[in-house]
Amino acid sequence: MLAGLSWPAIALLMVAGVLLDLLLGEARRWHPLIGFGNLANLLERRLNRCHRARLSFWRGMLAWLLAVLPLVALSMAICSVLGWAAHVLLLYFCLGLRSLREHNLPIGVALAHGDLAQARMLTARIVSRDTAQASETDLAKASTESLLENGNDAVFGTLFWFLIGGGPGALLFRLANTLDAMWGYRTPRFDWFGCCAARIDDVLNVVPARLTALSYVLLATRWQDKRHAWRCWRSQAGSWSSPNAGPVMASGAGALGLQLGGAATYDGVLEQRATLGSGRSASGSDIARAWRLIARTTMLWLGCVGLAATIYFWSTHA
């Protein structure tokens, strides 16, 4: 929890950060995470030059420390001077709730109008898989998977670490998540250099990913969907390559009554991934359904923090 702040204050700061994100969206110019990405690329080019596994691992750890720790320390110093305003601004810059909506809902609109070319172009902006020959089902599946997984990475994990460490905690999580997205690949270039970034992101995501998965279960529309989402989580999550994305995506797919995962093409190579959820294949309209699940989960998390704030207030003023 934020040191020195009561639960009512924490609840107000979280609501303020979420509202700023919904009202303003991503910074169109000079976004801090874009600048951080440029810094990460510079460090990677300078330090990822060793072909020996053990030395490459330690170089990757050094790159992670140089990229993350100075910025987190700087954010702590700023928060100590500016107080609550700095915490709110840091949470705003780290959240991506409105961004998820703006990048994904237009894909559903394009598919609804039969504009496959537009949908392919929009989907290519948010996923790394090939979309040039993708069908409507492929595009809808890609967008829905992205929404479910990034709901945790861009929203709920960020809110969780804000509760733990305020603005600097949210920043730590988002920077670690960004480095995992940039370096955490099992390729000859990043297998050892990016190992540290991948493992740190895994550790930071253990609790928020499972809270997100539980939220998806609770917010499934019907009782049978809730039970279905729970069964998918428990039986399918372990088969997914990521230990934290597995629970999130399996429970989300089950809650939506969709079958996700399966075949996808990356760099011209067809990969057969594990199946998540069960039911029908995704369609364009399911992108909006996935977004609504993310939005309801956000309201649930804010409501839980608000309830904790109310209980705290009445217990201290009784």
UniProtKB/TrEMBL annotation:
Pathway: Cofactor biosynthesis; adenosylcobalamin biosynthesis. Its main location: membrane. Pfam families: CobD_Cbib. It is found in: Cell membrane. The keyword Membrane applies. GO terms for cellular component: plasma membrane. Keywords: Cell membrane, Cobalamin biosynthesis, Membrane, Transmembrane, Transmembrane helix. The chain crosses the membrane at residues 6-24, 62-93, 154-176, 293-314. InterPro entries: Cobalamin_biosynth_CobD/CbiB. It is a multi-pass membrane protein. GO terms for molecular function: ABC-type vitamin B12 transporter activity; threonine-phosphate decarboxylase activity. One of its GO terms (biological process) is cobalamin biosynthetic process. NCBIfam families: cobal_cbiB. Converts cobyric acid to cobinamide by the addition of aminopropanol on the F carboxylic group. Belongs to the CobD/CbiB family. This is Cobalamin biosynthesis protein CobD. It comes from Massilia psychrophila. The lineage of its organism: Bacteria, Pseudomonadati, Pseudomonadota, Betaproteobacteria, Burkholderiales. The gene is cobD.
